[in-house]
Amino acid sequence: MSTEDTPKDYSESPINLEYFYTAGSATTRFLNQVKEGNIVGQGCPKCKAVYVPPRGSCPRCGVATDIEVPLTDKGCIESFTVVHIPIPGNPIVPPYVCAMIRLDGANISFLHLIQDVDIENIRIGMRIQAVWKPKEEWTHSLENIKWFAPIDEPDVDVATLRFQES
Ligand SMILES: [Zn+2]
């Protein structure tokens, strides 16, 4: 049997897509702050939930989240997964960890990388902080943060992160 007759489990089909992302006013305000190294969530005036990244309205209350809420770049790991499959164009060699990051003072989390720690030591509730790229590389993107890395603080009890009705 020649190599050409060998059954394949998969095939690679590279696809390149070019697209333009048009940020709305809420995301524009957020990304303008990110370019300056600031993470500013937006709060709901009714239920007080803080969204980061913000989308401009509170899905619970249906009102504009027009309260600017400066946050730090510290938080905890809400959940995570170990990535074992390489992603074309991604320079990070598997296995690596992607985690849902809940910043202190925020009510939702966002996806980012965890580095500077052995994978087997990563856990839900672990305290982490952003590791930023050099300032001269900052753009309007959360990719200004290279990854999040553990800090020497006690773990958070994730049950305490549940949204509390006010
Ligand atoms: Zn609300």
From TrEMBL:
InterPro entries: ChsH2_C, ChsH2_Znr, NA-bd_OB-fold, Thioester_dehydratase-like. SUPFAM superfamilies: Nucleic acid-binding proteins. Residues 35-64 form the ChsH2 rubredoxin-like zinc ribbon domain. Residues 68-133 form the ChsH2 C-terminal OB-fold domain. It comes from the Bacteria. This is PF01796 domain protein. It comes from SAR86 cluster bacterium SAR86E.
